[in-house]
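Reminder: ligand-aware prediction takes two inputs, not one.
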Amino acid sequence: MSVAENFREIKSRLNDKIILVAVTKNHGVELMREAIDAGAKNIGENRVQEAAEKFQTLNREVTRHLIGHLQTNKVKQAVKLFDLIESVDSQHLAAAIDKAAAQIGKVQDILIQVNLARETQKSGVLLEDLKAIISFVDDLENLRLRGLMMIAPNFPDVEQCRPLFAQMRKLFDELKTSRDNFDFLSMGMTHDYKIAVEEGANVVRLGTAIFGERSLTNGNHRQI
Ligand SMILES: *Cc1c(COP(=O)(O)O)cnc(C)c1O
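Here is what comes back for the chain with pyridoxal-5'-phosphate:
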């Protein structure tokens, strides 16, 4: 199946309220255009430099999500490029984004990435640090906290993700009751998104399911 067919097929099976982010990392701008022309309204990239190059020649309107770990030295560029930074994982990074957003008169939408499974190789805040970063972000005028993001571990049996997704959903719902604009729970990738959606995700980030396998030569499939 083509990219357009894959995209439409997946989209047609998802509830309209769920945001499908087409993850175009390691793929060229042509495939990005193909997905957008098939109806994609949201694009996800994990590296600032790679995204900058593609967006420059994209020539399409689309909502841009940064889904990869953001280094402080790339913050200025990221704030110019992305509508939603999903991968905020420290107070230090939040402060840097706020400063860069203030400089260009922008209020930057962000998600906080939670490392619920406490995987040492993954970024994201630990559960016990979540409250502190949220209140820190609340004091920053140029950030708007829109929700939470989580990357589930790569379990041998994908069903093992379910309790983690359910726990995130609970956390999200609790926070949402006392907050404005807290709308997005981003979880679910190609191998686990169906379970994520069943457990309450309203943003899913799909690369392989839409574009096929990324090449191993430039791929960083498992390095997040
Ligand atoms: C690469 C990536 C995805 C998409 O992964 P697939 O398994 O190809 O769907 C989703 N989220 C993040 C954070 C990623 O880096």
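Confidence is low (pLDDT under 50) at residues 218-224. Residues 3-211 form a domain with the TIM Barrel fold (CATH 3.20.20.10). We will return to this case in the review session.
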